[in-house]
Design brief:
Blueprint: H1 2-7, E1 12-20, E2 23-28, E3 32-37, E4 51-57, E5 60-66, H2 67-70, E6 83-89, E7 92-98, E8 100-108, E9 112-113, E10 127-133, E11 138-143, H3 145-149, H4 154-161, H5 178-181, E12 183-191, E13 194-199, E14 203-208, E15 222-228, E16 231-237, H6 238-241, E17 254-259, E18 264-269, E19 271-279, E20 283-284, E21 296-302, E22 307-312, H7 320-324, H8 327-336, H9 344-347, E23 349-357, E24 360-365, E25 369-374, E26 388-394, E27 397-403, H10 404-407, E28 420-426, E29 429-435, E30 437-445, E31 449-450, E32 465-470, E33 476-480, H11 482-486
Length: 487
């Protein structure tokens, strides 16, 4: 398989992650032809217990197996979250039902560890590693799904060969297949009530909407920038770009991180639908209009024209020249580059994020802050330390949430619209810190920062305080030592 060849030659792997029961799995995107909703399935007599049956996928017979049964997990009724991963097994397509598809993500090979000798409920022969994220709070088992489907089971082989149910040559990806060469694989998504798509080869990953930093002097359709793995990513709001009504961010919205030609950008969409393969001969040229920039490269007529998908060319949305001419984006990039020797003044300043607990002001170094989010739902963890409120889901990543009020033995306070959770990164470990409100980001002259007094009001352990900044006769900011707090 192509994915097997690439594994040893790249420093990153692109995965489709999905759930089976309480466990999260990932499989190489190169093995996944497409992701579809569970179709009508025809039961096949005398089939093995893990086989659901077969379905008609664009005129081809697709065998469907149950992912839970393949891994000896308890079966579960199919629901709205269930999806079918269409997997390429030696040129033949097999559908695998999973409980839910989480996201498309990239992981560094350095984050992949060998499979433990004992893995709960799972045949370790089918696993080729475990990804540990968020200091081990999120585990993704890398499933060699092709190997699992090719297991040495004569009953299964006889079933797949029965009545040519393994598919016909039109669906094959082998070198002799003309049809497979003339297909496009797309990520489809919704904007308002219309369906759009982008070539999957241009989509680097799909993430939830994080905290977006606004920048001045930008067109209305650029919502701002976000930091993804220390790189600033401009965020394009497609609704605004196409003149649609603007919506507040919600849980269904996603950002597609796409290759724009010479740079990457994030595109906000209402909802990601599925990963789909379509024959190129059903794609028609788009209608041309006087102000058309060419971002629409075609219209796919699926299901005999009953389903229309607008194909976008992201490289035509905004050019690198346009981006470089935006003063706000330039300033944001300058702001993010801590290695620039802009002036000696920068060396004598400390940039801090200021927040409140009660009436007191606290500060943490902005270099440790990844993002600032509104309060989200928290899952309680039994027998966790008293100051750990639980865990939160940040774009599919599980992050511990620390309540500073509890850690500092302050009176508990109800969550309000002002409550924020600051995502900090210390020694490559991310943690959410719950605070009453975030007030500002300021530059402080290091001369105004004094050592921590021996006695601090409020009963806060002085070990947590790195220093105190006196801004005037009435205002003090206590600067926290995150490394000691998180230890």
């Amino acid at each position: 398989m192509a994915s097997e060849i690439l594994k040893d030659s790249v420093t990153e792997r692109q995965l489709v992650t999905f759930l089976l029961g309480d466990d999260e799995f990932g499989t190489d995107i190169m093995d996944v032809r497409e992701i579809i909703r569970v179709p009508d399935i025809t039961k096949v007599p005398n089939a093995p217990s893990y086989v659901e049956g077969a379905c008609n996928l664009r005129g081809n017979v697709l065998p469907i197996v149950n992912g839970r049964s393949c891994l000896n997990l308890v079966r579960k009724d199919i629901d709205e979250n269930s999806r079918v991963l269409v997997i390429d097994v030696e040129g033949k397509a097999i559908g695998v039902i999973v409980d839910k598809v989480s996201e498309v993500m990239r992981v560094k090979t350095s984050e992949i560890e060998e499979t433990p000798y004992i893995v709960k409920n799972i045949n370790s022969d089918y696993l080729d590693g475990v990804v540990k994220l968020e200091n081990g709070n999120r585990l993704i088992m890398l499933l060699d799904i092709v190997k699992a489907l090719k297991q040495n089971n004569t009953e299964k082989e006889s079933f797949l060969e029965k009545d040519n149910i393994s598919g016909n040559d039109n669906y094959s990806t082998g070198s002799g297949s003309v049809e497979a060469i003339h297909e496009e694989q797309l990520v489809t998504f919704l904007l308002d009530k219309e369906e759009y798509a982008i070539d999957i080869m241009l989509v680097k990953e799909i993430i939830r909407v994080p905290q977006i930093v606004k920048v001045p002097n930008c067109p209305e359709y650029i919502d701002g920038v976000v930091s993804i793995r220390n790189n600033l990513l401009p965020i394009i709001n497609l609704r605004t770009y196409f003149g649609m009504e603007r919506l507040e961010y919600n849980d269904q919205m996603r950002i597609l991180v796409v290759d724009m030609g010479t740079f990457s950008a994030g595109i906000i969409v209402d909802k990601v639908s599925e990963v789909l393969r379509i024959p190129v001969d059903i794609i028609q040229p788009p209608p041309q209009f006087s102000e058309d920039k060419g971002e629409l490269k075609g219209v796919a007529r699926v299901n005999g024209g009953n389903r229309m998908i607008l194909l976008l060319d992201p490289t035509k949305l905004i050019s690198a020249e346009e981006l470089s001419s935006l003063k706000g984006i330039q300033e944001a990039n300058d702001f993010s580059d801590g290695n620039d020797d802009n002036s000696s003044q920068a060396l004598d300043e400390e940039k801090l994020v200021i927040f409140k607990l009660g009436r007191e002001d606290y500060g943490i170094k902005i270099a440790n802050v990844q993002e600032i989010n509104r309060m989200t739902s928290i899952t309680k963890i039994p027998r966790a330390p008293y100051h750990i409120e639980g865990i939160v889901n940040l774009r599919g990543n599980v992050i511990p949430a620390l309540d500073l009020r509890k850690l500092f033995n302050l009176e508990e306070k109800q969550i309000t619209d002002s409550t924020r959770i600051i995502i900090v990164d210390v020694n490559n470990k991310r943690t959410g810190i719950i605070v009453d409100s975030v007030t500002e980001v300021i530059n402080l002259d290091k001369k105004v920062i004094e050592p921590t007094p021996d006695i601090l009001s409020g009963g806060i352990d002085s070990d947590y305080i790195e220093g105190v900044a006196k801004l005037n006769n009435t205002r003090m900011i206590m600067i926290l030592d995150l490394s000691k707090i998180l230890n």
